[in-house]
Structures are given as C-alpha cells and as structure tokens.
Amino acid sequence: MVVFSSLTSVESIKSVCVFSVRGSDGTSLLRGPPECEHVSVVRSSDGSIVSTFDLPKTALLEFSPLNKILITWQPYNKSQDSSHSDANLQLWELQSGQLIKALYQKKVDSWCPRWSEDEKLSVRSVNNELHFYENNDFNTIANKLHMQKVSNFALSPGGQPSKVAVYVPGSKGAPSFVRLYQYPVFGGSSAALANKSFFKADKVTMQWNKKASAVLVMASTEVDKTGASYYGEQTLHYLAVNGETALVQLPKNGPIYDVVWSPNSSEFCVVYGFMPAKATIFNLKCDPVFDFGTGPRNAAYYSPQGHILVLAGFGNLRGQMEVWDVKKYKQVAKPQAPDATHFSWSPDGEYVVTATCSPRLRVSNGYKIWHYTGSVVHKWEMPSGSELWEVLWQPFPDSCFPERPVKYQATPSDLGTTQALPTQVYRPPALRHLPATASSKLHEEEPPQNMRPGVLWEKSLSKSALKNQRKREAKKAAKQELKPEPGPPLEPATITNSQSEPTSGDPETDKKIKNLKKKLKAIEELREQQVSGKVLQKNQVTEILEDMMASSVLLFGR
C-alpha cells in the first residue's frame, strides 16, 4: 500500500500533488506542484531516485506497461509572437532519462499512446489517422489506419495479435459506428472483424475484456431530448471479434452508471436505471444471468480473481456497498464507507481500500483498509490542515495470487466493522409514544433474482417477499380447485357440432338444440368469470337462472 499526501517528501521534493504506481516492480512516480520544476521517479521499495526530469509545466504522466518509457504531457501553448510551439508530448527512457521522441498533442483526449502488454506495438491518434509503432521505435511509422473523423480508439489487452476498436462519430444524418480490426490487416472491405452502427452518440467509452475477444461500447449524449434524465442518454453495445454484435437490452429506463467486465471475460455487470438503480450480470449473448434487484448504487468492482463483486454507491450517495459471491450469487456483507471518493481491490482479492481524497473533498481526508467481509483492519486519518490526494496498492502479476474460498463470517478486528446500520423512518416527537404503523415507501425495492432459465431463486428473497410469493401461489392453486368438474356427456343429438348436419331429422328440434347450445355457452362463460373472482351484476345472475329454466323448457318441453 502506498499513500500520497501533502506531507510526502523525497529529498529535494518538498510537496507533491500527483502520485502513481505502475508495473510489477513497484516503480513510483512523483511530480511536484506548480511551483516545483522537477518530475522525479523513485523506487517505492527503498525510496531511491531512478530519474529526474526538468519539466515544470507537466500536467499528465504515465508509464508504459513494462516501465521502459515515461510519457509526459504539457498543455499545448502557442504564443502570439511565435509561429510555432514546442512539442508538448515527450517520451523518455526511464532508466537513462534520455528523450526518445517529442510530439505534438493539442487535445487532452487520448493524449497518451496505447501499448500492447509486451510493448511490441503502440498506437496514437493523429488527426484522422491512427499511427502504429513497433518495438518502441517512434521514428518510424510502421502502419497507418486512415478513417474520416476518427475521435476515439481502444487497443486490446494481452499480447499479439493486437486488435483495435475505432469510433467514428456520425454527421449529416449518418449514424456513428465502431469497427474492430486486427493489426496489421486494415485494407479492403472485409478487413473489419466487426462493425456496429448506432445513433444518439456524442461520445463513447470502449472496454475490451481481458481475453480481447469482445468489446463493450457505451454511447452517450450530452442532452436527453426527452427531458427524462439530467445526465443525457446512454446506450450499451456489444461487439465480438467473431463478427457478432448486439444492443444490450436494459429493462429499466435511466442512465448507465457503470459497466465492468468480469476478469474471466465471459460476463459483464451493468449498473443502470433511475434511482434506486438496478445491477445485472449479462453473458456473452447479452442475456441476463443474474439481477441484483434495486438499491442505492452507481459503481461495480470485480475482485482481481473475479469471484467477488462489490456494488457501491459513492459520490452523492451514502457509500453503501454490497459484497456478493458471484459463483453462488449470495450476499457476503453490506458495509458502508461514507464520503469515500476512491475504492480499489488489493491484488490478492482479500482486502479493499476506501479513501476520502482531495480535491474531491478537502476535509476528513483519510483511508480505511478492510476485509471484504466488512471488518476494518487499518484506519488512517490525515492531520488537520493536510490533504490526501491518492492511495494505491502496489501492483503484482495476476498469477501471484490464486483464488481463495469466499468467507461469510466477518474477520475479527479491533477496529470493528463498517456494516451499515438499519435505517428507520423518521417520526415526529409528538407521535413517538404511539405504536408504530406501517409506512409507505417512496420506492418499492426489487429483490434479487436468478435470470437463468429453469432456476428457482428463493435464497436472496426477503422474508416478506417469500411470504407474498407463497400467498400468490396458494391463491392460484385455490382458484384451480374451485373450477367445476366437467359434467357427463350430453346425448349425441345435443353435442353435435354446429358445423355438422342435424341428426334428429326434425328441423324444429334442431333449431331448439342450436339455441340451447348458445345459451349453455353463455352460461359457461359467466360461470368462469364468477369462479375467477369477478363480481357479477344482479341481472347477470338472474339471466343465468332464467336461461337455465328456458333451456329446460326447450329441451324437455315442460
């Protein structure tokens, strides 16, 4: 665990405002505030300085996946008295501190080049093109992908062959689209692995799964023209490298707060809908697998091993979290971390950290480390007048920590638990001496349910929900029992089908039989309505009796 605050200092660096950790070796990056003139890279294991760079205006920093290159970005600034500006995107060799390449990058969107995990391929967006570089040779463009008005892209994780998702916004009535390509096959009409077109998209976010077999595209508009949502309008699309595409159908209207892939790459979780929001797990066919019901949530976090899922409500919500075992779909704990601005899993999947950081909140800064069962194992609060900016776990390769069995009993701790206390309805002082009465809720909460076909889900239902479900089933069974038993068959002359020829030989008798059948059918319909619980009017009951008497006269002549 590495903590970064205004008290941190490394040799000549007196105050720090950005802290980052990347790579399995624990290399740390520290950047000074506006009054500092240096960016220093230190090793978190012993605090030794790896490299120092004179970059006073640096605003953004990043490491390459193997920690070979440091990328720095400064705001693009072109003075009026100068016809050109200095290159504001620099690539530095981390160990030697030598400048590899200086480039121009005006927009902050997609400012950082993207690398494959083995650093054999990198790509950056330049105007309407994607420039591809191989083996960190940025002096030679190995390949180009030219598309009109490319505004966003996402490089697939993992090794070779690399794939790239490209987004082109719509214009002049034409739809926006996302296409998947495999490097370096970009030419020809059949080069695209998949293509998905859609409207209502001012911007998109694209997420590859870990196996690089599919990508999720969340398209959003800045303004919802229907006026239903302040957050605009969002839709979720699915594209697979085998060519399959789909629109993910969400059963509840409202914004999409979060979309996250499971580490197993076979399912994903979506948090969506007007509050209280729903959370649903979908498979690769975009069919719902499990619905967590509704609750105060706007984020989802899978453990690194993928066996535990945390649904949380941060920001303008109270910080309530739901910890779920996603193999058994059983709730483990329900802790609460109010005012939390940061959440992350430890690499071993046993602990999480929640923190209140600046500048999101400048008061009550600090962090808690707790076991996923709800026990707080460590707590630290910033001294008065100090601010906490970031808290990060030291990263490790995925293979370092195998999956462990899920525990349901809280781990013992001297600091107690963070379980949310049950909330009670406010009652005015004048009514508190009176017996409590059932109160109506502003929102009816939906219980969790398993969406897999043929699976009966009762374990996560509350007692009241189970009771109501059993009442409905008992009522339905009682109605089935109240249905009348079928009577003995009538004589052949009376059950003759209306489309068959009369068998009596007497036209007058055949006419009476036809009228009798009509009246019997009407009586049967009224009786079915009466059995189903519908209250019949008095004249309808009288009509049934009169028709029965008249039918007897027609049939028997008395």
Structure characteristics:
five-stranded antiparallel β-sheet, 558 residues, Lipocalin, mainly beta, 11% helix, 3 helices, tRNA binding, four-stranded antiparallel β-sheet, single chain, mRNA binding, extended, initiation factor
Radius of gyration, taken over Cα atoms and rounded to an integer in Å: 34 Å
CATH architecture of the domain at 15-112: Beta Barrel
CATH topology value of the domain at 15-112: Lipocalin
Side-by-side strand order of the widest sheet: 22-23-24-25-35
Output mean pLDDT. 78
Strand content: 25-35%
Overview in brief:
Keywords: Coiled coil, Initiation factor, Protein biosynthesis, Repeat, Translation regulation, WD repeat. The protein is mostly beta strands and 558 residues long. The chain has helices at 463-482, 507-531, 538-556, and strands spanning 2-5, 18-22, 27-31, 39-43, 49-53, 60-63, 69-73, 89-93, 99-103, 114-115, 121-126, 129-134, 143-146, 152-155, 163-168, 176-182, 194-198, 203-208, 214-221, 233-240, 245-247, 256-261, 267-272, 277-283, 288-295, 299-302, 308-312, 321-325, 330-333, 342-345, 351-356, 366-371, 376-381, 388-392, 449-450.
